[in-house]
Amino acid sequence: MIPISTPLLGAEEKEAVLAVIDSRQLAQGAQVAAFERAFADVCGVKHAIATSSGTTALQTAVLAHGIGPGDEVITTPFTFIASANSIIFAGAKPVFVDIDKHTYNMDPCQIEAVITPRTKAILPVHIFGNPCDMGAILDIAVRHGLAVIEDACQAHGASINGQMVGGFGTGCFSFYPTKNITTAEGGIVTTNDDALADRARLIRNHGQRERYYHESIGYNFRMTEIQAAIGLVQVGKLEQFVETRRANARYLNQHLLRVPLAAGLQGVVLPYEAPGHRHAYHQYTVRVPKRRDQMLAHLRERGIGTGIYYPVPVHKQAAYQRLGYRDHLPVTEEACVEVLSLPVHPALSQDDLEHIVEGVNSLWS
Question: For residues 322 and 57, what is the distance between their CA atoms, to the nearest angstrom?
């Protein structure tokens, strides 16, 4: 079976972990600080605040912006549920807008219609590693005095005109094992705002600057030294990993049978990359109009791993239905029954790529 994703960990990561074990310093310390500096440099920002997961990075960012009960945050329903849950955890309300049919990202044209006096922030998600239209989103945010929190949990190494995502607003990244780089589990908040960085550090460590002196209510969202040691090795490989993902995506783009978005049953709709945008291809996601489930079974029989991200949009999840969400977001809902992700990770061989192409194209032969 060709897996849909796989972490790439080798001797360097093993040595880094063993060095931490030998040091006896296992809690947040010098390795975490070094990893934070390295990741901030990659993103071109002043501050990076490491956390225990991508979810806690999102929670930290939302809370650091002072978002709480009675507030609203505009976000996308086409994402993993943690994006919206981070808003719920703060006592605020997620407000969903539909997505762009080409990028699967939040459609900026939908945002201003749902802004109210209670709106405090916009939380776009760079889904599958494809950067959002940050120019349009930032323009709206500035006009309405709103914060921007980028969910870049799938977008390590993605950029717009050379500027890395995570540096347009307050960035949030995940280092879960399937991400473009991993710390086994973990997350990080990125920002150029000194005051916000200070609040984030307090939030992730029980509200304490000095041990046992608590300035505010905080959480235990700390990253371990072992996680950070793995991350320090991985961040040095990020550019290589992303370039390999992009090369694999180019091969698939060149060889898969394709159709226009409104066409019939022959072929798949390929991923879209806007001019000036660098897609990091956390996932290589195609659309299969009318025949997605047939394609899924067809590829499984041929030993090709696939993923459906996401079969149910957030606003249709049972948990959100119980909260009273009754939105109808047609572009999102159509995408959920048509999208299918194919392997694109750096561990693929040329034989793997050829087998994926043959498997997809043979459905129509």
Answer: 26
208 assigned to some structural domain: yes
Q: Based on the fold, state whether residues 112 and 122 are members of the same structural domain.
A: yes
In this structure, the answer to whether residues 206 and 243 fall within a common structural domain is no
The answer to the question of residue 3 being in a domain is no
173 and 190 co-located in one domain = yes
Structural domain including 36 reads 11-237
Count of domains observed in the chain: 2
**What is the SS3 assignment for 268-300?**
EECCCCCCCEECCCCCEEEECCCCHHHHHHHHH
Q: Are 36 and 227 in contact (CB under 8 A)?
A: no
Q: What does the alpha-carbon distance between residue 85 and residue 90 come to, in Å, rounded to a whole number?
A: 9
Model confidence, pTM: 0.96
Q: Determine the Cα–Cα distance for residues 362 and 356; give it in Å rounded to an integer.
A: 10
Q: Answer whether residue 46 is part of any domain.
A: yes
pLDDT per residue as tens digits for the range 172-228: 999 999 999 999 999 999 999 999 999 999 999 999 999 999 999 999 999 999 999
Asked if 331 contacts 315 with a C-beta cutoff of 8 angstroms, the reply is no
Q: How far apart are CA 283 and CA 290, in angstroms?
A: 21
The string of pLDDT tens digits covering residues 301-344 is: 999 999 999 999 999 999 999 999 999 999 999 999 999 999 99
DSSP-assigned letter for residue 99 = B
Residue 258 pLDDT grade (very low, low, confident, very high; cuts 50, 70, 90):
confident
Quick one: 30 and 154 in the same domain? yes
